[in-house]
Structure formats: C-alpha cells, structure tokens
Amino acid sequence: MKNKQLNRKSGKDPSRWKSLIGLLPFFFFIAFFLVMPSITLFSGAFQDMDGQFTLANFSFLQNTFALKSYLTSIWVSLITSVIGGAFGFFVAYATTSGRAPRWMSTILTTFSGLAANFGGVPLAFAFIATLGRTGFITALLKGICLNGPDGAAICPFNPYDHGFNLYSVVGLILAYTYFQFPLMVLTITPALEGLKKEWVEASTNLGSSSAQYWRYVALPVLLPSLLGATILLFGNAFGAYATAQALTGGSIYLVTIMIGQQIRGDVLGNPNEGYALAFGMVIIMSITIFLYVMLQRKTARWIKS
Questions:
Q1: Nearest-CA neighbor of 275 among 39, 72, 52, 68?
Q2: Do 21 and 15 touch, CB atoms closer than 8 A?
Q3: Which of 88, 170, 188, 212 has its CA 20 to 30 A from that of 276?
Q4: Cα distance between residue 288 and residue 78, in whole Å
Q5: Range 197-208 burial, b when 16+ CB lie within 10 A, else e
Q6: Residue 239: inside a domain, yes or no?
Q7: What is residue 47's DSSP assignment?
Q8: What would the pLDDT profile of 27-68 be if each residue is shown by its tens digit?
Q9: How far apart are CA 98 and CA 79, in angstroms?
Q10: 18-33 confidence digits (pLDDT tens)
Q11: Which domain holds residue 288?
C-alpha cells in the first residue's frame, strides 16, 4: 500500500500508463494523417521543384484564376452558411419548442445526424438523379404546363430552358445547403434547449409580447451561438471538395478544386503552388476556427449559469 502511494506521488502509477496505451492508436492516427501532412504542406509551400527555398509559389496572389477561386469559394460558403443557418435554425426551433410531436422531433434529429454527414460523390449523384437533365423532378416538370410572363402556356416546362443549371454555382449552392442545414440543427439545438422557461414566464408577466421577448431576451442570448454555428457552416462549406468535383467535374473554380488540379498535375501540375494555395486556405480556416471557439466560450458561460 505504501509503495502504491509512493508511486502515485512520484508519478509512477502503473494503471495510468496502462490507460495511456489505449491512446496510442489515436496518437498514431493524428501523427500520420494530420501532423505529417501539415508539415509537408507548410514546407512545400516555401520550396520550388528542386527543394530550394522560394516565395515564388505565392505568386498565385497575382493570378486572376486563383483569386477568383478564393472569391467563389468564399461566396458559396457565405451563401450556404446563411441559407442553411436560417433554415436549420427554424427547424431546430420547431423541434425544441415543444409544439412539434415527439415522433417528428426524433425523425428530424435522426435525419439531421445522417444528412450532415451525407456528402461527396453520393450526394452529387443523388442531386444528378433528382435535378439533372434527365432527373426525376426534371422529368415531372416536363410533364406539366406553366403560364409564361406573357400569359402563354409553356408546355412542356423544362427548367434547363429557363435558366436553371444544376452544374453551375446555383446547383452547387443547392447541394451544399442540403448538408449545411442539418449541421445547423445539430449545432444550434443545445443552445435553444438552454433557453430557460423562466425567462419566457418572466417576460410574459412583465407584459411583453413574443416578438419583444425574442428581440430583447432570446436573440441577444442566442447571438453568440448563432454566429458561431454560422461560422462553423462557413468552414464546412469552404473545405468541401468531393461534392463540387463530382457534381461539376471541376468546371467551377473553387480553391479546393484548383489545389487538387495542381497537386495531381493533370491540368496545372505545380504541387508546390498547390501547397501555397492550401496554406492560404489553412489561414482562412484557422481564423474561422478561432472565431468559432471564442463564440463557443461565450455561449458556454450563460448555458452553465
């Protein structure tokens, strides 16, 4: 007994080391799939093809296509984070307010957990099979007649003849929104559940309306959570690659697609410049994560109180 106490005081607790052995697979995974790729990325961004130090890889800042890819990625991420955030907030509110049936809340929560992780090639294929030129909904629309602006009947109605194109930025926004709003539901639900019923009762007893309660009580309290969740959605869309590549075939210049083309070498073929593009992307993602963590800390204060 005395030896065990001495070992614990000296930091030589055998049970502690046994528990740390179980973490070895996690540390190996982090080392091989996060640390080492990050080191390769950072070092490659400042090297030329011969391995010599250079800053020429960052000349992409003067490349119109590279800057356009950043702007397009930021634009698509902003739009989908706002649309998905707003839609997801109302869905989450419907499930937490107590007005929706319990079975419906369970279905929405389960669906959100699945849809938030449904992306990449399967999601692109699902949208092509649904809204593509020969998709299910497109075929249904071709079988109906609509009135045009001049009152003339349009038969059949083909959305692709009237400006819609799934393989464009609009289609990409639709696809991204599909996995953005379920993520918002999962992220904002704990904050909505943290709203205390006593606040509503006190607000009602003081004579305030529902609109005044949300304006002066609920929204100020939820604002850090809403902003943090929206920032998380932005980062989620900004780093997406497989869905855009499979849906558009690389025809839309996103920064992730441009990085893939540089590293694979099938079109551009300068891996080091691809590392530099990824380095800029890491900076944007780091800012996003920092803002999200700051807002989450602020949210955690009133949830614990």
A1: 39
A2: no
A3: 170
A4: 12
A5: eeeeeebeeeeb
A6: yes
A7: B
A8: 899 899 888 988 988 999 999 888 888 988 888 878 888 899
A9: 30
A10: 677 778 888 899 899 8
A11: 64-122+165-304
